[in-house]
Design a protein that fits this description.
The structure is a single chain. With 137 residues, this protein is an alpha+beta fold. The chain has 3 helices and 6 strands; from the N terminus they run E-H-E-E-E-E-H-E-H. It has a 4-stranded antiparallel β-sheet, with helices on one face. A hairpin with a 2-residue loop joins strand 3 and strand 4. Helix 1 runs antiparallel to helix 2.
Length: 137
């Protein structure tokens, strides 16, 4: 099956290629978080949102023991890290994340990339790329 990407006709922020905003979502094991955070900080990622999530992929969970009885743990604890970038290249974020997370085993994680139509900073009303920048940057 071939999946083709088609950009939407217009955006609410009136963005062009030079003001492109991208959301990168990374789902991985909780134990990999510190390494991932350091890798992202080293390439200039200044903010992220982190969630505790549960799920499984190809491995369909795993067996565990509870009070001496084997049970199936269908949903495994994971973390979801979200970053939104406009100046740091997306491929640089992907490369840093892959390097930090790779062990060669099933369960290393997934990276999802989304186009962001607009960002609005509530406190100032700034929109687009300006909403992601801070005065000291």
């Amino acid at each position: 099956m071939v999946v083709e990407y088609q950009a939407s006709g217009g955006t609410t922020g009136g963005q062009d290629a030079q003001t492109k905003i991208t959301k990168i979502e990374i789902i991985t094991n909780e134990s990999k978080f510190e390494g991932l955070k350091k890798a992202l900080n080293s390439i200039g990622i200044t903010g992220m949102t982190v969630f505790d999530v549960f799920g499984y992929g190809m491995q369909k969970g795993h067996s565990t023991y509870y009070r001496g009885v084997e049970t199936e743990a269908d949903l495994l604890p994971k973390i979801r890290v979200e970053v939104v970038v406009s100046t740091v290249p997306v491929q640089e974020v992907v490369d840093a994340a892959r390097k930090a997370l790779y062990s060669g085993n099933i369960g290393d994680g997934k990276i999802f990339i989304y186009n962001v139509e607009n960002v609005i900073r509530v406190s100032t009303g700034d929109e687009g790329k300006k909403a992601l920048e801070y005065p000291n940057e």
